[in-house]
Amino acid sequence: VVDLLVLEFSKVWSPLSKVYDAYSFKLLPLMGKLLAKDAESYQYLAESIRMHPDQETLKQMMSDAGLSKVDYYNLAAGVVALHKGYKT
Fold first, then answer.
1. DSSP letter string, 47-66
2. N or C, where is the chain less crowded by C-beta within 10 Å?
3. How far is residue 74's CA from residue 88's CA, in Å, rounded to a whole number?
4. What are phi and psi of 4, to 5 degrees?
């Protein structure tokens, strides 16, 4: 039984980073403006995702917090990652 699962936006696979950045910072706010009349919230979403720790950093943070057998799985080329850990 896994004691902790974290599903979070993460660092995208490097070859896709320019396309993903264009989507996140250009297209996503435009869609927010057109569909929700709120470009700023979608711009903030893109910015806040970039502030989240990358996969290895979050893995280390979980280990430092006392979890064991910490690992992660990239989903959608790293757009999101699923981290797991066990209490020791």
1. HHHHHS--HHHHHHHHHHTT
2. N
3. 24
4. -145, 130
CA atoms within 13 A on the CB side of 49: 23
CA–CA dist 33, 52 (Å, integer): 24
Question: If pLDDT is split at 50, 70 and 90, which confidence band does 16 have?
Answer: very high
Q: Which residue range is the domain that position 9 belongs to? A: 4-87
Task: Using DSSP bridges, classify how beta strands 80-87 and 67-75 pair: parallel, antiparallel or unpaired.
Answer: antiparallel
Q: How many helices (H) and strands (E) does the chain have?
A: 4, 3
pLDDT digits (tens, 9 = 90+) for 22-77: 999 999 999 999 999 999 999 999 999 999 999 999 999 999 999 999 999 999 99
- Total structural domains within the chain: 1
